[in-house]
Amino acid sequence: MVDLDNFPELLDDVIEKKANDLMLSYQNDSEWGDEMPVPVERIAQNHLGYDIEITNEGLFEDPDFLGGIHFDDKLIQVNGSIEDHDGRYNFTIAHELGHHCLHKDAFNEMSASGEIMCRDTGEKPIAERQADMFAAFLLMPKSKINKAFTKAFGEDETIFEMNFKKRYMLGSIAKRVIDAGSFTNVSLTAMTNRLIGMGLISGISYQKSVMPEGLNSGIPAYLSRLYRKLKKLIK
Amino acid sequence: MPKTTLGEYIRSLRTKRDIGVRELGRAVDVSGVHISSIEKGKNAPSPELLRKIAIVLKVDVDKLLSMANQVDPEVINVIKDSPSAVPSFLRSAKGLSKEQWEELEKAAIKMSKVKK
């Protein structure tokens, strides 16, 4: 078993360039312009020749195992539990493409099994963090984010200063950028973290999960629903 | 050369048509997990599902059914309607060439039009 922490550090710029190179080579190889969303499934399938399998079997009975890549078999596996979450589904495929672009050669030298299975728990090893970063760069290219951000919030160099109390605003900021830039295969959390990474939201660290707009008001939406249900039952 | 399985055939058509596994699932009202398991040969699709897949992938449904060792339910109904005549006819036509089958098909189409 390869230690996923045993990979060299890579500069963010290097990872970003690898993501942009992949996008460019797909652009040259297909009819895709550079319109959003980035079709990561097609890049994996048609450009790099990976088969995509969605499965709940074996390791994937555990919902923490979101995806895996088998370099020799040219197979990317995605956990069936995230099939209906467009953001998580596409991020997982983009993450596995990150392993293909960043780690395949080094990995093949270290391991006989030729596969990486990716688990979403606790502190991630370096290779997983790099693949996450690659996925963010691939799905949300810097120039497209800047354009969408300006479209959503105007020309002046807006930066959202955040603190814990203002945390409820994150979902709606991310949603406006997603809508403005047609990043339809990206989750609110991924977009929020990209905006934090680009310094367009400051004063707050990367988020594990961001609430959707419905939860931004004083009373969270699920509590409102619960209240309505209880009221109905009492009647 | 090993024979192509139904799953491999569906996967190759899907890739050729530039359709994702989840996308195909959505187009035929099943999950991507189900499509993946068919492509991996872990699950046998129903004739109804094969019919839907054939429409999306623009392929002859009879080819998919034959690869799945299945018969179109419509054909089964034809046999049920004439339980003696159809098997008897098929037995006597056993040795016919491809061209002769085509002739027969044309004749059958002509006869059914006349009947109408």
Written account of the structure:
The complex is a heterodimer of chains A (235) and B (116). The longest helix of chain A has 18 residues, at 12-29. In chain A, helix 3 crosses helix 5, helix 6 (142-153) packs across helix 7 and helix 7 crosses helix 8 (188-197). In chain A, a hairpin with a 4-residue loop joins strand 2 and strand 3 (75-79). Chain A is an alpha/beta fold. Chain A has helices at residues 12-29, 40-47, 86-102, 104-110, 126-139, 142-153, 170-181, 188-197, 221-234; strands spanning 51-55, 65-70, 75-79, 115-119, 160-161, 201-202. The mean pLDDT of chain A is 87. Chain A has nine helices and six strands. Chain B has 116 residues and is mostly helical. Chain B is 68% helix and 0% strand. Chain B contains eight helices and no strands. Chains A and B meet through helix 2 and strand 1 of A and helix 2 and helix 3 of B.
List the helices and strands and how they pair.
The complex is a heterodimer of chains A (235) and B (116).
Chain A: H1 12-29, H2 40-47, E1 51-55, E2 65-70, E3 75-79, H3 86-102, H4 104-110, E4 115-119, H5 126-139, H6 142-153, E5 160-161, H7 170-181, H8 188-197, E6 201-202, H9 221-234
Parallel strand pairs in A: 1-3, 5-6
Antiparallel strand pairs in A: 2-3, 2-4
Helix pairs in contact in A: 1-5, 3-5, 6-7, 7-8
Chain B: H1 6-16, H2 21-27, H3 32-39, H4 47-57, H5 61-67, H6 73-81, H7 85-92, H8 98-115
Helix pairs in contact in B: 1-3, 2-3
> What are the segments of chain B in which pLDDT stays under 50 over at least 5 consecutive residues?
none
Task: State the separation between the terminal residues of chain B, measured CA to CA.
Answer: 47 Å
Q: What oligomerization state is this entry in?
A: heterodimer
Q: What Rg of chain A is obtained from the alpha carbons, in whole angstroms?
A: 19 Å
Give Rg of chain B in angstroms. Answer: 17 Å
Number of DSSP-assigned strands of chain A: 6
Number of helices of chain B: 8
